[in-house]
Specification:
By secondary structure, this protein is mainly alpha-helical. It is built from 3 helices and no strands. This is DNA damage-inducible protein.
Length: about 80
């Protein structure tokens, strides 16, 4: 990937580091996930870290997001 600033590159590196940590956490989960699914889920959760942090603190979903405005899930199997 090419970035226009060091700040953008550092932010993406931080995202990848968090994604790696989440992948390790998901490996220990009591559910079977294929490696690619763990990596994709970890990257998604890392990219949604602000909304996830709000939920973990007991708050609601992402600000401005309505319950009916979710994207349809893609079937994996």
């Amino acid at each position: 990937m090419t970035f226009t600033s060091k700040k953008e590159a550092d932010a993406y590196d931080k995202l990848l580091d968090l994604s790696d940590e989440l992948t390790v956490l998901l490996e220990q989960a009591p559910v079977e996930l294929a490696e690619i699914d763990r990596e994709r889920l970890a990257f998604y959760l890392a990219s949604q870290r602000e909304a996830l942090a709000a939920l973990l603190r007991g708050g609601k979903g992402a600000p401005g997001e309505e319950k009916g405005s979710k994207k349809p899930l893609k079937q994996v199997a």
